[in-house]
Amino acid sequence: MSRQAPSPPATRGRPRDPRTRAAILTAARALLERGGLTSVTIEAIAQKAEVSRPTIYRYWPNAPAVAMAAFLETTGAAEAAQSTRAPLAALRSQLHALADAFAAPAGRSVAAMVAAAQSETELAKAFRNEFIARNRDATRTLLERCIADKAIEPPEDMELSLDLIFGPLFYRLLMGHAPITRGFVDQLLAAVIPARD
Question: For the chain, which residues make up each domain, given as ranges?
């Protein structure tokens, strides 16, 4: 007698509304820009976005995760990965936006607090999961498109290439010894993924 596969569990609650998510992120971004990372609390987001606290928790586990998701949007990582522009130009644009984000007051606030955070705090986890991982995923997508378009030589190790791009950026971010600028981004890209002749 054959056994049927178990049915997937029913989804609980209402489906997520992209407009609600956008309102939460807009509120968090405004708080971040006005008062820095410490001003982004669940209570403040809920009041500004005119949503309940449980609604926010349906999307993110805590305030640092919301703040990092909002900060991520200022870099345009998701838009860059879906851009119809030439992939190498889109990649450069994504990393330029990242440099611009960290040069802005909100970015400097994020950098200072991440640098001071212990590795297993909610803030550090949110930075890794909401910011680094998603920027890295967007860059991987763009590099794969660059390879398909024969704009760059295929790297021997894609993960190593991503480490070589983001490692120096986050080293400067955490150590604060030198700025993250568009010129620095251009130097990195030329060193790690030189364009084909």
Answer: 64-192
pLDDT digits (tens, 9 = 90+) for 36-73: 888 999 999 999 999 999 999 999 999 988 988 888 88
Tokens of 131: 């910011």
- What span, in angstroms and rounded, lies between the C-alpha atoms of 133 and 119? 15
The CATH classification number of 64-192 equals: 1.10.357.10
End-to-end CA distance of the chain: 64
CA distance 136 to 162: 7
Cα–Cα distances (Å) from 140 to 44, 161, 164, in that order, read 35, 9, 12
Q: How does 44-68 read in b/e, with b if 16+ C-beta sit within 10 Å?
A: bbbebbebeeebbeebbeebbbbbb
Helix H or strand E encompassing 16:
none
Structure pTM?
0.72
| Residue closest to 66 by CA, chosen among 40, 89, 43, 44 | 40
Q: Which residues of the chain have pLDDT under 50?
A: 1-11
**What are the residues facing 83 on neighbouring strands?**
none
Question: Tokens representing 11?
Answer: 């989804």
In whole angstroms, what is the distance from residue 9 CA to residue 186 CA? 48
Q: Which of 139, 153, 159 is nearest to 75 (CA)?
A: 139
Phi/psi region, residue 111 (left: phi>0; alpha: psi -120 to 50; beta: rest), is alpha
